[in-house]
Automatic annotation (TrEMBL):
Protein name as catalogued: GST N-terminal domain-containing protein
Source organism per UniProt: Guillardia theta (strain CCMP2712) (Cryptophyte)
Any one Gene Ontology cellular component term annotated for this protein: cytoplasm
Domain of life: Eukaryota
PROSITE patterns listed in its UniProt record: GST_NTER
All copies of domain GST N-terminal, residue ranges: 25-106
Amino acid sequence: MRGEGPTHRENKLRLFGHDEKEIRVVLYRDSAAWCPYCQKVWLLLEEKKIPYKIELINMRSYGDKPDWFLAKNPRGLLPVVEVDGKMISESVYIMQLERRLFGDWCGFVFQPGSFGKSSFEATLNLVDEALTSSPGPWFLGGDNPSIVDLQYISHIERMIPSCLYWKGFQMRGNGKWKGIERWLAAFEERPTYMATKSDYYTHVMDIPPQYGPGQSLPLAPLSETSLEPVLPFNNLGEEAARHEAATVLLGNHQVGESSS
Ligand SMILES: N[C@@H](CCC(=O)N[C@@H](CS)C(=O)NCC(=O)O)C(=O)O
């Protein structure tokens, strides 16, 4: 049914049982699904089931952005959320949007009238402590991820393969950060997250060219745990994987043709 069904990177309309006329939000996110700031806002809208429309905008590395988009958002940064016609950029601020919408709803319904390896490891220890001291997999406990989990996930997802490839630094599978492992495993059971998640190869190579290449160290030999785990959720079999690769390749070819 139009606007319904599972989370997918090609969705253009999300209704969650609402009428299209009720939509107040448009999400402008990057067409390649690389951008970590876009991912967390996208995941937030999906987890909170906020009805919204999606506009895919190319990142600078793929050429100029459409004039109509720059007219609405002169800095050109992604993501942007348009709420009731007002353009809001800065993803942390956008994420507070959910609380604001919720606050608006409560106010209406219930009231009369949001350098280095050692310091990186030390910080990971702190993050891990915060997660192990929580009763469940999430930072704030509870059955579902909160705004705090969403704030971290799109960045940690990118740190895992990029630290591994560029620095030979293994964040997963080494038994050091059990809270982070538990938290990632909980995210990997969620279809919404898995639909927004990208793969190791993309995250190693998706550092925008204007940032320059990652600074590499000699790499440790590859092992079972240093490779991206194939999870049951996305292990659809060889044939389905071939179909998906062919569809995406064809789609990229068409996008390339239309922008040249
Ligand atoms: N502080 C901004 C950062 C957004 C940002 O840096 N977005 C990057 C993409 S990851 C961007 O739009 N770069 C311009 C481009 O490559 O088109 C936020 O939190 O939303």
